[in-house]
Design brief:
The protein is an alpha/beta fold and 549 residues long. It is 37% helix and 22% strand. The structure holds glutamine.
């Protein structure tokens, strides 16, 4: 049986519990332990699959097809290990299980209650991943903020486990905020004291307090937090704002978070942290030798969390190329044939983002046309790939009003259409084509050069597909299906003959990029954007322009 660490949050949301949990996990992993992280979310949706990105940011998808919280993306990117359905549990899923059990008569005769039935189910799921010998440590992040009505049953479950598990098998790390009052020029510990008191009232006593702060914590502040919150001064950990989330594990190492945890859990004989690859990545990230500007064409660009994995993938790929990738957000809703050149001229590459529904799609199509005609590196993901297909149909094949049946049910050219099994789908939750599928790559293609492999596996989250009835027409005109599912023959990758870098993928490569394993599609796209930038400079010089250094 594994040991368990629970990470709770106080004072406000958005303090970065996921990053702290992932950083702690990374440090423990770097010392040779087998670690996984799971997230328990207090909302009633069974999973975040039906949530609008404005509500909850990106929906992360695992290999086994679970639609999950975006923090699982951080866990995978930090640990370089896949997560699964079991790593994300919501109140909705807990209640669904308990109610289904009640309908089957399993609680016969008993009144079904929050305590013990809901809390028992929470505990069962909290322990589940630790029951095999796959892991030495399971870290559980509790979503929400201590004191919320919604998170009460989860905190209660942790209280019971603290009592039921051997003392050295369970601990609680509480993340809080130490705000800085500009007028008083002081850091304030009161909100932290209150949040720890609230947690204690619910019966849970934290072993470690991690303090998010904009300024370093003095010894006096540390002592004060320790005294009022009843922990040892060395268990008060400073989490100073970092320039990148990837610095956080090293900051936690400096603060000794991992050592406190190892001591408390009585884990002896651990190795020194092996973080060579991680540090190598940070060096490259912090000292880029070149720079590119990539346009992110999307409709949720006001909210960065909506494209979290894409943005992180660019950070990994940028570091790999020792290139600073500047993302320029371009709102697809406001792109027109008239303004497109002005908006995109300065860019070195275009990524057309995933998405659902009609809003902003015409702008995406116009952007694809610009990239295709100007030989600007293009990378379309999911809806972005579908838009590339539609653009080609309309402007190269000359099929007016070609479209996806998602946006135009009666288009004369349904080049993107629903598969038969999707037509029958009524329920929205968990019914898309989800999770990992194999893809066979054709030889002598750009995709093959990028992946250096004939068979790959990538994660999906979509309903619509390339309509194979039109495949011959597309291929004759130069848009090739360079990757296809070996069984269903669905088109997974398209690329444009004669263009230096034009690739669209039906799946979501951004879900598999990690610090230690940047995704080849992003790495090569950034490289192509760098080459395009150099070419633009050469052309400018040949035209007599002076280029500022
Ligand atoms: N809306 C499209 C579909 O369902 C694309 C989905 C996506 O971009 N994730 O097929």
């Amino acid at each position: 049986m594994a040991k368990f660490i629970f990470v709770t949050g106080g004072v406000t949301s958005s303090l970065g519990k996921g990053i702290i949990a992932a950083s702690l996990a990374k440090l423990l992993q770097s010392r040779g332990l087998k670690v996984t992280i799971q997230k328990f979310d207090p909302y009633l949706n069974v999973d975040p699959g039906t949530l609008n990105p404005y509500e909850h940011g990106e929906c992360f998808v695992t290999d086994d097809g679970a639609e999950t919280d975006l923090d699982l993306g951080h866990y995978e990117r930090f640990l370089n290990l896949p997560t699964s359905q079991a790593n994300n549990v919501t109140t909705g899923r807990i209640y669904q299980t308990v109610i289904n059990r009640e309908r089957e008569g399993e609680y016969l005769g008993k009144t079904v209650q929050v305590v013990p039935h809901i809390t028992d189910e929470i505990k069962r799921r909290m322990l589940l991943l630790g029951e095999s010998d796959n892991y030495d440590i399971v870290i559980t992040e509790l979503g929400g903020t201590v004191g919320d009505i919604e998170s009460l049953p989860f905190v209660e479950a942790v209280r019971q486990l603290q009592w039921e598990l051997p003392e050295e098998d369970c601990m609680v790390v509480h993340l809080t905020l130490i705000p800085y009052l500009k007028a008083a020029k002081e850091l304030k510990t009161k909100p932290t004291q209150h949040s720890v008191r609230m947690l204690s009232q619910e019966g849970v006593h934290p072993d470690v307090i991690v303090c998010r702060t904009e300024h370093p914590l003095s010894d006096e502040i540390r002592r004060k937090v320790a005294l009022f919150c009843n922990v040892k001064p060395n268990a008060v950990i400073e989490a100073l704002d970092a320039s990148t989330i990837y610095e956080v594990p090293l900051k936690m190492l400096q603060e000794g978070l991992d050592v406190i945890v190892l001591k408390q859990l009585q884990i002896n004989g651990y190795a020194a942290p092996e973080l060579t690859k991680w540090r190598g990545f940070l060096d490259k990230l912090n000292y880029p030798k070149s720079r590119v500007k990539i346009g992110l064409i999307g409709k949720y660009i006001e909210l960065q969390d909506a494209y979290k994995s894409i943005l992180e993938s660019f950070i990994h790929a940028g570091a790999m190329n020792q290139c600073k990738v500047q993302i320029v957000n371009v709102h697809s809703e406001f792109l027109t044939n008239e303004n497109i050149a002005d908006k995109l001229r300065d860019l070195d590459g275009l990524l057309v983002a995933p998405g659902f529904g009609n809003r902003g799609v015409e702008g995406k199509i116009i952007a694809v046309k610009y990239a295709r005609e100007n030989k600007m590196p293009f990378f379309g993901i999911c809806l972005g790939m579908q838009m590339a297909v539609i653009e080609f149909a309309r402007n190269v094949l000359g099929w007016q009003n070609a479209h996806s049946t998602e946006m135009d049910a009666i288009t004369p050219y349904p080049v993107i259409a629903l598969m038969e099994e999707q037509k029958k789908v009524k329920k929205k939750g968990g019914t898309m084509r989800l999770g990992a599928y194999p893809c066979e790559i054709a030889p002598n293609t750009l995709a093959h050069k990028i992946y250096e492999s004939e068979l790959i596996s990538e994660r999906h989250r979509h309903r619509w597909e390339f309509n194979n009835n039109y495949l011959n027409d597309f291929e004759h005109a130069g848009l090739l299906a360079s990757g296809r599912n070996p069984d269903s023959k669905l088109v997974e990758i398209v690329e444009l003959k004669g263009h230096p870098y034009f690739i669209g993928v039906q799946y979501h490569p951004e879900l598999k990029s990690t610090v230690e394993n940047p995704h080849p599609l992003f790495v090569n796209f950034v490289k192509a954007a760098g080459e395009f930038a150099e070419l633009k400079i050469k052309i400018k010089i040949s035209q007599g322009e002076t280029i500022p250094s």
